[in-house]
């Protein structure tokens, strides 16, 4: 009997349009002989199932079902394609865990931790993982430019703490530009992180649970035409993503071991994509995404393809792992 799969997409953040693209790719790729796939749009003002005729049907938030004219639609598993809030920060994970509905992303606590860049870095530093020097600010804090520069130097990156797709990020070269960058970041989040600039090769490493095993995918090297890997570089073709990365075997081994260590240490499941920069041939951890882009052009699907895993296999495996995890929970 075919499983009913809800593909949640959209979200509450600036990344909603990217999420809609990812979710649509998942919908078009899933094997319709194995699954009944349904596009569920999650927005602040509505949760709806959008049918093939683009007619919207309200989702009952009490049990995540949809009342149709002929029946009530219930789901065997949720495929999470929401980048940012509320799909990547723990809220949807907690909701589905309370309803006992399997989902393809990591668990609630892990999602909340990894989405919060400051907390994630703090948790991993205990394990000796190298990171950039950083300075934290909350909305309303006094801004001491001299103290910030003394801690992180110039150039530096000013980032929204809980945001993705490079929204709210500015590379600051001069002290005079620092305040504007801080205000830009505060438009995305009420917490920000300011980090030192690391000059080196940037790589992205996908780690997934595939057929029951933690699997590190081929490494991608990021070469951007811009000052850094910003939104335009990520989504408007202003970068090169080279898989496998043009790095030495020693560097590749170091970052592969580190990416797997982070996945295991954080007790993740499902998809993840971690970002690193090499400084003196040592990988420095930047951040990790637990609901990465899933279009054909996105990094993790490119890495999976390089590993011989098609999009259909990648998505099918995610559902199987979610169902298996649900069945083996204590």
Your description of this structure?
The structure is a single chain. The protein is of the alpha+beta class and 330 residues long. The chain folds into three domains: 3-104, Rossmann fold; 113-129 and 200-328, ATP-grasp fold, B domain (D-amino Acid Aminotransferase, Chain A, domain 1, 2-Layer Sandwich); 134-196, ATP-grasp fold, A domain (Dna Ligase, domain 1). It is 32% helix and 28% strand. The protein is built from ten helices and 17 strands. It has helices at residues 16-29, 91-99, 108-115, 117-125, 145-152, 178-186, 231-235, 249-265, 299-306, 311-328; strands at residues 3-10, 35-43, 46-50, 56-60, 65-67, 72-73, 77-80, 134-138, 156-160, 170-172, 191-196, 202-210, 213-216, 220-224, 239-242, 271-279, 282-289. α2 (91-99) runs antiparallel to α3 (108-115).
Concise structural overview:
Helices cover 32% and strands 28% of the residues.
| Spatial arrangement of strands, main beta sheet | 6-5-4-3-2-1-7
- Distance between the ends: 26 Å
- Please give the CATH class of the largest domain: Alpha Beta
The total strand number stands at 17
Tell me, briefly, the overall form.
globular
